[in-house]
Amino acid sequence: MFFEDLDLNDNVLDALYDMRFDKCTPVQEKCIPEILKGHDVLGVAQTGTGKTAAYLLPVLSKLADGGYPESAINCVIMSPTRELAQQIDQAMQGFAYYLNGVSCVAVYGGNDGNRYDQELKSLSLGADVVIATPGRFISHLSLGNVDLSKVSFFILDEADRMLDMGFSEDIMTIAKKLPSTCQTIMFSATMPKKIEELAKTLLKNPVEIKLAVSKPAEKIHQMAYVCYETQKMGILKDVFKGGNMKRVIIFSGSKQKVKQIAGALSRKHINCGEMHSDLDQEQRNDIMFKFKSGQVDVLVATDIVSRGIDIDDITMVINYDVPHDVEDYVHRIGRTARADHDGTAITLVNEDDIYFFQQIESFLGKEIEKVQLPDGLGEAPEYKSNGKPKRGASAKSIRRKNRDYQSHKDKKQGNNKQRSRRPEQQSQESSDNKVQHSQERKPNYRQKNKGQEQQNNNNNAVEAKSANKRNNRQDKNRQTDKQTKPNNNRRNDKEAASNKEASQKTNAQQNRKPNNKKKKNNNRQRNTNEKGARRSTKYDIREELPTSSKSDSGLKALIKKPLKWLRNLGKK
């Protein structure tokens, strides 16, 4: 069918004529009439079939016909990535070239302050068509910069991709603020259960259009190299050996590998660029512009480029890593053989990816051609699989093994052996280990007794040596005593005589002076004995007084004969 046969606006048809678009694709032929009638549409078709024009052309035609409020947002198009939003904006500018009253703005993150101010101004003035990523549009919505009360068209492009990226909640929050009369259009490359549930909640009696679900174009020549991981770079060098390889995209599963591959190709003087999430928006725009304009021949990228990027003259797609999802494989190789062009898809399959590649072959319903390795790369692994993916082949497990091997070689090897054995063997080994530990812990009395005997012998020898030293010292002291004995005897006799004289003097003084303290103690003892109280252990002073007749200086002599006592005192 031709576009002229459809009920489109004349200005839109003029733009299509200038762009040399005459015939409709099957998706466009079935979707455009239903959208023009005002029905909700659920379109499921493979990538590269013209889904962008399938919803842009009827929406622009209806906006050009008029009847919609001015200075208000009339259409909201949600895109999963910035690159796809930019591509939709470029297609919009081409289709609306002759439409003077229709304005458009692209809203996505990663821009500077000037870009944000332009977005804010366009949203406040009410652009007719807003093409936005969910995250940036939610931020404007939360700040009150967007009025969705007059929206007439709500379009979800690559809906399955947005759900995979976790934008389901954002889509639901946006959809709740739309009016009930809004026409909803959803396009997806696949039809999982999540898309069906989302379609039931958003669409009202939709018209389902399904065409060639997740099937690559027939013009793509698919090939595969079964190789080891270390042989992949050699295969790439052999592919680019002939030269004149332009418009090539190399897909890898991680951004680190993208950097490594781009560095290796640049060292081989291959004009290449890299595209991954570590680049800011300016760098992404620069790389995409250079690749589209032909300044860069080879683009090494992650899956960020696998969907929605419309470049018609891609000649080859190389899968450096096998995607674990069949849909990702279809989207990757769908970058080539677009718009009736031929293309080639090469996949490098290592040992660990054989299972996933066989799943891709079973989904496609055919066996992909296997190519022999170039000369000098060695033998290839056998293309066989047990029906299950090999465990422990991920990069995370490999890093863990290398780290364990380098840091704790002996310990980790022992622990891995125990883990790999059966639990019965582990229990037996644990019991044996316990017995060994218990035997090691039991004391060896023979060894202890021998050690004690040796210690005792050593102690006896030390004691004998010390005794001999002591005896020698005593002998020396005796000899010195003999030499100094006469002098010491004289000194001792003098000291003894002086001590006797001092003792006699002290005894006489004690006899002369009455001990008043002892009298007081005797009186206390008498009182206590009469009352039956405490008893003193001191002797009575009368027992200490001299009783001899020779000395009448006692208390008895004082009481009986005081004059005689005084006379004796005077004589003394």
From TrEMBL:
GO function terms (MF aspect) = ATP binding; hydrolase activity; nucleic acid binding; RNA helicase activity
Q: What is this protein called?
A: DEAD/DEAH box helicase
Where's the Helicase ATP-binding domain? Answer: 32-209
- Where composition is biased (Low complexity), the residues are 452-465
Short motif Q motif, span:
1-29
Please note every region of biased composition (Basic and acidic residues): 431-443, 472-498, 527-545
Q: Which GO terms describe its cellular component?
A: cytosol
- Renumbered to this chain, region (Disordered) spans 377-572
Into which family does the record put it? Belongs to the DEAD box helicase family.
Q: Which keywords appear in this protein's UniProt record, sorted alphabetically?
A: ATP-binding, Helicase, Hydrolase, Nucleotide-binding
* Pfam entry (one): DEAD
SMART domains for the chain: DEXDc, HELICc
* Native source organism of the sequence: Prevotella vespertina
Residues in domain Helicase C-terminal? 234-379
Provide ranges: composition bias, Basic residues.
387-402, 514-523, 558-572
Starting at the broadest rank, the lineage of the source organism is: Bacteria, Pseudomonadati, Bacteroidota, Bacteroidia, Bacteroidales
